[in-house]
C-alpha cells in the first residue's frame, strides 16, 4: 500500500500511545498555534503510523487537535472549506513500538520551545528506557554533549521542585541548585522549608544540601589528595552548574584528614620526643608557646630570612627558615623536657601542614573521656594525644555551693550562644561592641569571642556573602566583599560575630555571663527564654536544682512535693514550671534581670477636655517635627540604588542614633515603617529579616556608623 502524503483530520483516529508528549500546551501557546494554523494552515508535517486498523499521530498531536477544533467551527455545508482546513501533510513512520517511542522522543526534544523540565524528563527516558548515553542523545537531537549532561543531572530533581519550576514558581537557577543532592527526600524537605519562609537563595540551597561535602579545591581535599580519597571509596561528583566538583563522602574526608595529621604528628613526636600533640587549636589557659631558641651558628642566616616578609620569601627560603627554627628549638629544649610538652599541627588553604613546637603546660589539664571526642572532628578543639603517661595534675578545689554539672553547663552554653547570636544579628552596635573588645584585648584571657578561629561547630552561614566566601581563599573572598553594599557587609559582619561567640571556651561560665550582661538592653532575656531547653537542663542537673526551681516559682509546698519524686519526674515537673513562669537558671537570671516597671506618674489635675486639647496640640507639633527630621535623615543618609537593599533594623538603628545625636524625638518603629512606605520604598521579608528594596546607605556612611 502506498501511503498518502496528506491526510484529512477525520482519517486520523487519535494520539499514538508511543507519543512522547504527556502534558498539553499552555493556553496562550495553544491560542497562538490556532491563530497561525487558521491563517496559514499546517506547514510542518505530522509524524503518523498505522497501529492496527487505525492511523495515529506519533508527533504533532497539538496540531492535529487544533485542526479538529477549526473544522468543527466551520459550517458542515461548506465542504470545500472543511476539506481545505482539515487536510494536513504527514510523514509515515515504519517500525516497532519501541522504535516509534524512540523516534517520538527524539522529535519531541528537538523543539525549541520545550520547557527544561519536559526536556530533561525525555532525556532521562531515552537514557533509561532506550539505553542512550549522553553522546548519542546529543547526536540524535542536535544538542551539545555538555548540554545533555546538564539536563540529565536535572533528572534527579524532586517532583515538587520540577512542578514548581514548570509552573514558574521558581527560577531556573534555584531549580538547578536543588540538583546538588541526589536525595529526593532532602530536596523535598528543603523546598518546603524555603517555600514556608518565602526565601529561595541558590547559595543557601546548595550549602544546605551539601553539608557533608567538600569542594575539590578545599584545604581538606588538598591535604589528602583526590587519589587517596577515591582509593578509600570516596565518591566524586562533577558539578555542571558551578565551577567546582565535590567529594560527596564527608566522613571519609574527615577520617583521611585525621589519619594524615595523626601520622605526621606521630612521626614528629617519635623523631623529636614530644609527649603530646594537638590539631588546629589549643586552649590558651592550658598551654602557651615557650619562646626557647638556640640558633648557634645559624643566627645570622635566621635573622636574614626572618627580616623578609612572607611574600618576599621563596618556597625554598620558607622551608629553610622553618628548618632553622626547628633545629633552634630542639637545641634549646632537652630531650627529657620534651616528653611533657606538646606540638600543634595546622593545615592551611593550600593543604600544607604547619607545626608549632614547644607548647608548655601552664595549668592543670584533664583529658576528656574518649566518648566525648567525635571521630574525625579535626575542625574543633581536640584533646591532646598522649604518647607517654604523665602524672595526673591535682584536682582543682571544689567551688563553694553545688557545682555546675558538665551536661547542665553545656545546656547553658548553648542557650547563651544562640541567644547572643540572635541579639547580635538584630543589633549591629552590639556586634561592634563584642568585636572591638575581642580584637582589641591582646591578652586573649577569658575571651568568649575569638574572631581569629573558625566559628562554632555546626555553624551554617545564611547571609549570601558569607555563604559565597565560606570555602574561598582570602584573595578570592575580598573582591566579593568589596562589591557588596554597606548594609550587606554589616549584616554579614553581624552574623560572623554572632557565630564566633562561644562561652564554652571558658573555664569559668561566670566569665561568659559578662556578654549576657552587656546585651541586657538588647532584649537578651527574651532570646534566652526562647533558646533555653529546660528539660535538657534539669535532666543534666541534680534533683536539688529542680527542687530549687520549683521553690522559686511555686513555693515551699510544691518544692517539698518535688523533693520526694524520682529524679526523672522531678526534672519533668521543673521543666514545666520553668516554661509556665518564664524561669531561667539563677546564673542567667542574675545577669539579665527583668526590666523594672516605670515609676508611677503624678496625678494629672487637668479636666479631660483640657488634657485632650493639650495632647492633640502636642501630638501635632511632635509629628510635624518627627516627619521633617525623618525626611532630612532619608535625604542625607540613604540613596536609591537599583538592586540594593537595607535590613530594616539596620536602617532604623542608624535613624535612632542620628535622632539621638540631634536631640530629636524619633518615630517609633511602626511610624518609621509607614513613613518609608509613604516615600514609595518597597519592603520584602526573607529568611534574614525584613529588607527595604532598591535603597542603600549613602556612600559616606560607613558600616561602623550604621551600627553606632
Quickly describe the structure:
With 708 residues, the protein is of the alpha+beta class. It has 33 helices and 16 strands. The strands form 4 sheets. A 5-stranded mixed beta sheet has the order 1-5-3-4-2, with helices on both faces. A 5-stranded mixed beta sheet has the order 10-12-11-9-13.
The structure class reads alpha+beta
Distance between the termini: 89 Å
Biggest β-sheet: strands ordered side by side in the sheet: 1-5-3-4-2
Strand content: 5-15%
Roughly what is the average pLDDT, rounded to an integer? Answer: 77
Supply the CATH architecture of the largest domain.
Orthogonal Bundle
Q: Overall 3D geometry?
A: extended
Rg of Cα set: 35 Å
Give the class-level CATH name of the largest domain.
Answer: Mainly Alpha
| Total domain units | 4
Please give the largest β-sheet: 5 strands, mixed
Please estimate the helix content.
Answer: 40-55%
Low-confidence segments, given as residue ranges, are 364-382, 387-401, 596-601, 703-708
Query: Number of helical runs?
Result: 33
Q: Got a strand count?
A: 16
CATH topology tier name of the largest domain? Arc Repressor Mutant, subunit A
Protein name: Chromosome partitioning protein, ParB family
InterPro entries: Chromosome_partition/occlusion, HTH_ParB/Spo0J, ParB/Sulfiredoxin_sf, ParB_N
Pfam families: HTH_ParB, ParB_N
GO biological process, one term: chromosome segregation
Amino acid at each position: 500500500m502506498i501511503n498518502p502524503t496528506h491526510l484529512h483530520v477525520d482519517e486520523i483516529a487519535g494520539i499514538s500511545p508511543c507519543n512522547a508528549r504527556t502534558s498539553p500546551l499552555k493556553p496562550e501557546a495553544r491560542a497562538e498555534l490556532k491563530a497561525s494554523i487558521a491563517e496559514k494552515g499546517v506547514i510542518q508535517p505530522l509524524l503518523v503510523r498505522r497501529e492496527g486498523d487505525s492511523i495515529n499521530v506519533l508527533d504533532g498531536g497539538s496540531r492535529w487537535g487544533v485542526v479538529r477544533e477549526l473544522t468543527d467551527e466551520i459550517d458542515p455545508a461548506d465542504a470545500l472549506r472543511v476539506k481545505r482546513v482539515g487536510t494536513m501533510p504527514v510523514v509515515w513512520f515504519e517500525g516497532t513500538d519501541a522504535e516509534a517511542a524512540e523516534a517520538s522522543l527524539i522529535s519531541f526534544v528537538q523543539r525549541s520551545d520545550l520547557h527544561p523540565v519536559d526536556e530533561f524528563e525525555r532525556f532521562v527516558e531515552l537514557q533509561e528506557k532506550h539505553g542512550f548515553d549522553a553522546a548519542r542523545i546529543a547526536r540524535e537531537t542536535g544538542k551539545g554533549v555538555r548540554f545533555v549532561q546538564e539536563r540529565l543531572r536535572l533528572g534527579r530533581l524532586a517532583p515538587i521542585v520540577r512542578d514548581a519550576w514548570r509552573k514558574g514558581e521558581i527560577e531556573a537557577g534555584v531549580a538547578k541548585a536543588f540538583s546538588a543532592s541526589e536525595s529526593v527526600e532532602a530536596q523535598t524537605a528543603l523546598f518546603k522549608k524555603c517555600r514556608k519562609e518565602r526565601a529561595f537563595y541558590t547559595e543557601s540551597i546548595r550549602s544546605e544540601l551539601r553539608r557533608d561535602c567538600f569542594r575539590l579545591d578545599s584545604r581538606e581535599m588538598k591535604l589528602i589528595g583526590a587519589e587517596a580519597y577515591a582509593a578509600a571509596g570516596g565518591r566524586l561528583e562533577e558539578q555542571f552548574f558551578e565551577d567546582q566538583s565535590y567529594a560527596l563522602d564527608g566522613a571519609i574526608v574527615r577520617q583521611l584528614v585525621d589519619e594524615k595529621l595523626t601520622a605526621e604528628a606521630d612521626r614528629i613526636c617519635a623523631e623529636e620526643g614530644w609527649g603530646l600533640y594537638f590539631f588546629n587549636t589549643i586552649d590558651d589557659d592550658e598551654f602557651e608557646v615557650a619562646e626557647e631558641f638556640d640558633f648557634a651558628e645559624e643566627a645570622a642566616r635566621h635573622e636574614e630570612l626572618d627580616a623578609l616578609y612572607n611574600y618576599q620569601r621563596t618556597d625554598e627560603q620558607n622551608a629553610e627558615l622553618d628548618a632553622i627554627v626547628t633545629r633552634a628549638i630542639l637545641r634549646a629544649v632537652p630531650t627529657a623536657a620534651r616528653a611533657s610538652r606538646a606540638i600543634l599541627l595546622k593545615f592551611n588553604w593550600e593543604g600544607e601542614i604547619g607545626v608549632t613546637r614547644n607548647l608548655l603546660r601552664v595549668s592543670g589539664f584533664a583529658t576528656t573521656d574518649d566518648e566525648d571526642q567525635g571521630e574525625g572532628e579535626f575542625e574543633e578543639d581536640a584533646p591532646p594525644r598522649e604518647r607517654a603517661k604523665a602524672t595526673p595534675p591535682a584536682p582543682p578545689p571544689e567551688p563553694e555551693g553545688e557545682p555546675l554539672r558538665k551536661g547542665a553547663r553545656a545546656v547553658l552554653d548553648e542557650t547563651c550562644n544562640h541567644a547572643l547570636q540572635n541579639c547580635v544579628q538584630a543589633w549591629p552596635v552590639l556586634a561592634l561592641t563584642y568585636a572591638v573588645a575581642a580584637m582589641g584585648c591582646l591578652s586573649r584571657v577569658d575571651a568568649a569571642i575569638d574572631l581569629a578561629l573558625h566559628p562554632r561547630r555546626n555553624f551554617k552561614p545564611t547571609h549570601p556573602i558569607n555563604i559565597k566566601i565560606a570555602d574561598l581563599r582570602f584573595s578570592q573572598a575580598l573582591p566579593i566583599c568589596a562589591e557588596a553594599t554597606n548594609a550587606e557587609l554589616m549584616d554579614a559582619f553581624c552574623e560572623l560575630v554572632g557565630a564566633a561567640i562561644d562561652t564554652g571556651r571558658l573555664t569559668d561560665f561566670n566569665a561568659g555571663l559578662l556578654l549576657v550582661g552587656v546585651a541586657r538592653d538588647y532584649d537578651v532575656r527574651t532570646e534566652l527564654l526562647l533558646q533555653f531547653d529546660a528539660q535538657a537542663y534539669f535532666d543534666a542537673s541534680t534533683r536539688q536544682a529542680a527542687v530549687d526551681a520549683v521553690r522559686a516559682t511555686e513555693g515551699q509546698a510544691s518544692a517539698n512535693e518535688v523533693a520526694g519524686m524520682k529524679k526523672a519526674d522531678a526534672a519533668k515537673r521543673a521543666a514545666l514550671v520553668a516554661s509556665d513562669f518564664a524561669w531561667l537558671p539563677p546564673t542567667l537570671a542574675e545577669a539579665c534581670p527583668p526590666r523594672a516597671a516605670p515609676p508611677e506618674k503624678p496625678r494629672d489635675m487637668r479636666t479631660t477636655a483640657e488634657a485632650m486639647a493639650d495632647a492633640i496640640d502636642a501630638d501635632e507639633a511632635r509629628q510635624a517635627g518627627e516627619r521633617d527630621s525623618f525626611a532630612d535623615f532619608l535625604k542625607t543618609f540613604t540613596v536609591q540604588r537599583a538592586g540594593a537593599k537595607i535590613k530594616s533594623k539596620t536602617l532604623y538603628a542608624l535613624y535612632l542614633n542620628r535622632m539621638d545625636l540631634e536631640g530629636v524625638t524619633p518615630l517609633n518603629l511602626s511610624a518609621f515603617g509607614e513613613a518609608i512606605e509613604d516615600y514609595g520604598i518597597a519592603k520584602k521579608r526573607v529568611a534574614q529579616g525584613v529588607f527595604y528594596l532598591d535603597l542603600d546607605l549613602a556612600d559616606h556612611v560607613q558600616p561602623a556608623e550604621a551600627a553606632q
